[in-house]
Amino acid sequence: MVDFLEGLGSVSVWAFWAPVLVWTGLAGVAVLVLARMRGLHPIAGYRLRQALLLALPVGVLAAPWVPGLLPAGPASVGPVPSVNGAAMAPSVADGVALAADGGRGVDIAMALLGAATVAIVLLAIWRLAILATDLRQLRRLRQVAVRVDDAAPRRQLRKLAEQTGVRRPMELLEGPPDSAPMTFGAWRPVIMIPRSVLGSPDSLDGVLVHELVHIRRADYTWALLDCLVSAALAFHPLVWFLRRGIERCRETSCDAEVLARGFVRPKPYAELLAHTHTPTQFPMPAVAASLSAPSLKLKERLEIMKNFADQSLTSRQHVGIVLGAGLVCVVVAVAGACATRTEEKHGECGGGAYEESLETRPLPWKAILASEACINIAGPSAVDLETPLTVRPQVLEERGDYVSAVRSIIVDPLRAKLDGMTTIAFDLDAGGTILDPRVVRSSGNEAMDDAIRALVATLDLTPAETASGPVAVKMEFAVALSPTR
Question: Which terminus of the chain has a smaller tally of CB atoms within 10 A, N or C?
């Protein structure tokens, strides 16, 4: 179980946690800026907050497809499995003994990160189940609600729909007596209004226009998407903070448009809001767009309504707000997606040749650079399965001979189609003889597999030794080729 959590933590640290961390910093700064912009129109605040919220899942989903910007971590020096399941230890500097079992300790940080990831998944499942319950509640409510057959409200709805530019078919239903006016439904929207409002023509106009604005902007669909994101990422406090801000701006932007377009006078509309803000016993589903916003105080709502009642936005301004919000979403999402490590590069490509002998590096990676290709060769790793080693195997060839042996397979890697990674496992007997070289891991390039296997067969190695003398060991040898294009 601990190994599973450690593996999950290692995978999720760059695929999930790094984008989330970057998004938290950027979105947190943006939220603070938005909170200080008192003169920002509610519709702009609405769209910008939506963009910030949606940037988080977009960044996480895009992370595997966007090149990382952070440098790659050091090569792993942990044991790797051999062909028969035995542990293979990494090569180390001379004079360092290797543990008999080749084991390694548990990375506590990665294990804890894996446990946190599991907790997040369980929390997301729970929150998504609650959202599914809300959607079922709306479906049942739609089925049991009474259709409004009174000609006057229906005629008024058609008239106002034409004035607000809503062309979609809608249903007008009578809601429960203790409910607030609301709209829901993506394909065939429903406007649900309690009987007390249906019987008041002055209040009915304000309610219908408010809900029609929601329908024209597809606020239910956006609210459903916001709910899905906040449920899947329920662990993050900033997600819920943004969600509450979106709900407030959604309602206040509707209020501003209703008054700016002159459908209702400010005083009757303020009285309507005061009436709908009274607590009700009817449970309001979070995904429905309601005239009553539980997270918005009446005083704050009336103040915003007063400040923006005379500010009618032009079509060009609406388009600018949408484009600006889309740009914010893309920039924040890409920044989060780029917060991954770059793919580990084996060597540095460039003009000219650079060589480095195996004996001068304590790390298990040997880099040889030719002008035709980047090559990384893992120094042979060895472990005695019974007793600690005192001397690891060494390459007998001189520097030139060894480099020449490697270069012989990459004179023209593009023509030879040598590209990828091959790991060869073999046995080294007590006399230093290489036995049974075999491919244990490969990127699928058979030509490269054959070339590296032939190369390993030509190596001359000194035997591994313990305190009692030379011993037979199992070894692995890895080569990665990346021809320059």
Answer: C
Pairing label, strands 190-194, 171-175: parallel
Interior CA angle at 52 toward 45 and 303, to 5°?
Answer: 20
CA distances from 305 to 38, 41, 248, 309 (A): 13, 10, 12, 6
Q: Which helix (H) or strand (E) holds 437?
A: strand 434-442
* Dist. CA 139–CA 473, nearest whole Å: 68
Burial of residue 365, with CB atoms counted within 10 A of its CB: 0-12 exposed, 13-18 middle, 19 or more buried: buried
State how far the Cα of 291 lies from the Cα of 272, in Å rounded to an integer: 10
Residue-wise pLDDT tens digits, 75-108: 333 333 333 333 333 333 333 333 333 334 457 8
- The model's pLDDT over 285-309, given as tens digits with 9 standing for 90+, comes to 677 777 666 667 778 888 888 888 7
- Whole-model pTM: value is 0.65
pLDDT at residue 62 in the model: 87
Nearby residues of 456 by Cβ (< 8 Å), 6 or more positions away: 424, 426, 434, 437, 477
End-to-end CA distance of the chain: 44
